[in-house]
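Entry 14. Two folds queued back to back today. First construct below, sequence then structure tokens.
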Amino acid sequence: MKIPFTKYQGTGNDFVIIDNRNPHYLTRKDTEIIKRLCDRKFGIGADGLILLQALEAYDFEMVYFNADGRESTMCGNGGRCVTAFAKKIGVIDQEATFLAIDGPHQIKIDANNWVQLHMKDVDKIEIGEDYFIMDTGSPHYVVFVEDISDLNIVELGQSIRYSERFRKEGINVNFVEQKKEGIEVATYERGVEDETLSCGTGVTAASLAYAIQQNSQKEIPVLTKGGQLSVRFEKEGNQFKNIWLCGPAQAVFEGIVQI
């Protein structure tokens, strides 16, 4: 079987995206195929794979898989990339609504593929002595550091992700450095089991943690190794609503893969 695909990246977080409306090339059970397509040596290579599917009452459905081939929780950068892909193939115009595993998402996209993605509300945040834990569509552990460049992100991320508390289900780990304007974020992602250049739900979690720490009510500029994002929100105490993850989404290449 030959499958057409498009490779997208959002601030360095890259995805294989497949129009799975008609025909249905892949299903949620195709774990090994998806894992191989994401493999950077034996496949196309990506942090994850996204199926765009038709769904009644929505413009489309987003089904997201980590690089290990397993269907996963919400991916913010993936949501922005599949939005740009949906516009490219004529499924949407400038505004739309899609369904992901964590519920409906509103989206807005301009002519330069700057995508605004409405995220789920966050009203349960665990605040520890030196950490924050929350679910922004995916579970995240946030810790503030003095100098990200001085850290071994993979080693430190693994020590938390594979700790006794999180070993079974896993958790994404975000290291956050306060900058003159906004924050810088580095993320270790479960499922990829490595540092990624950017993580949308991680950037969102880091921004909300920073807003609690600084009692901030404004939009947060965020620098990642893959580029610049921003997160805006409405804050009521330690609860957040009307959260928008904003940033670029760019096509890298397209092709046909034989499986």
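Second construct, same run, same settings:
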Amino acid sequence: MVFTKEDFNRGHMNTTNHRFIDEAGDTTFYLKGKKSALGTNGVSTCFIIGMLKVNDDLDVVRSKIIKLQNEIASDPFFEVPSVIKKKSKMGYFLHATDDIPEIRYKFLELIKTINCTFEAVGGEKSIKRYEQAHKGKEQYFYADLLSHLIKTKLQQEGKLVFHISGRGKSTKHQNLDLALQKAIHRVKSNPTKKIEIKREVVFNVNYPLNEPLLNLVDYFCWTVQRVFEKGETRYYERLKDKISLVVDLYDESKYLDWGNYYNVKNPLTSQNKKTHHRTIP
């Protein structure tokens, strides 16, 4: 599907709402021979999907990000392997996992000037749940988390465009439609009231090199993932006032009184670091 400049500018098309979606962590559960990968080096303990709403003019924000990327790419100070590699292959774009601390700091400072809000759904990885609830397929695991992330956006009227960072089979049309159907089912299953879904929903799969706003959501996802993986909160604290919600989806110990829902009043802390599944699959 092709989107015009008018489509993208929120101020020119009030009935169209745009959200930008990316993820952090990996969806790896097994090594060769069906051996559990959980707890091994290089495999994440959890996987999160995050969604960003940008309240400023989208093209203006894009221009700011592109300007920063060009400054970094042309500055001899940043002639480091991660930047050189991207420049030689595809062109430099901001990506939190690859970027050195000095670049992260510059982008975090830019993000602070942008009027935006971020929310995420995180799922701690479990072999048992993966096999039983997700049929042992990475794309189903992805679809389940995505459905929880988007379900609250379906009850308003107007067109909703999810600009989503491409991720192999997980973001193929069939799997994104599965996530949408799961989200609709969850909304309609509300026992307290009957809800009719009126929104037109479109998934626009794109890539960070082509859509600078995906670089924004990448950084937010990464800051939350650092809390879950390492118990490191300094990046999260930097952006906390723009993070409206983080749902730790499978933390049953906190389900009472919505304790697994984190926001400014109930922020993530170093205690949210995931460790227990390393010994309990």
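Quick look at the second one. Strands lie at 16-25, 30-31, 35-36, 46-54, 116-124, 159-165, 200-206, 243-248, 261-262. Confidence is low (pLDDT under 50) at residues 1-13, 277-281.
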